[in-house]
Amino acid sequence: MEKPPAPSSAEVIAKSPKQKKKVILPSLVGTSYTNQDELRAKYKSMNQLLFSRLSNDSSGVTSYYKDVSREMKTKYRQLLSEEDESVKRDRIESWRMGSDLDLHRLSVRSAMDAVVECLKDWWTQEMNDRESDGKFEKFGPIAEFVEPLVIITGRGNHSSNGLSKIKISVLAYLKKANYIYDENVGNVSVLGRR
């Protein structure tokens, strides 16, 4: 028995279990998104479509639409997570190539993963260079061989309280891990470690 053709990437075709009626919804999967805002807008419009159908449903398929909505939410979160991971990898790679560590468009969790990874690499490089110099004990807590690590956290303009959640998390981590840093508007410069 031959499988029916898969729906195009532009739509999802499903049949209501109680009525053999086709429901056509735009798909989140198979479409490339330039950023999270575009994906968020697509998800929001799809949810509005579903909820309008839920409120106008008199045929008893409300539970079906709720299931579709749940499935859509799961796909949406998965796509956001995949994009977040990809952006994080790109930002870490850019930092390794010599630019600042820019945390814009990352979730707090991914931003902190990137910060921890870059700080570890940054301070390890400093320690290796100190060891190569031969007089390890003559150096203080400020990095002598590597440039300060500039972490761009953003100002928090898009946060509800006007404070950057990422910056708050970065500062808390730096303090806890005994890093020496200068806090600036929209970024933090890590100078060394106690």
From TrEMBL:
Domain Smr, chain residue ranges per copy: 101-194
GO molecular function: endonuclease activity
UniProt cross-references to PROSITE patterns, sorted A to Z: SMR
Top-rank taxon: Eukaryota
UniProt-listed InterPro entries: Endo/PolyKinase_Domain-Protein (IPR052772), Smr_dom (IPR002625), Smr_dom_sf (IPR036063)
Gene Ontology cellular component annotations, sorted alphabetically: nucleus
Protein name: Smr domain-containing protein
Organism: Cerrena zonata
Lineage start: Eukaryota, Fungi, Dikarya, Basidiomycota, Agaricomycotina
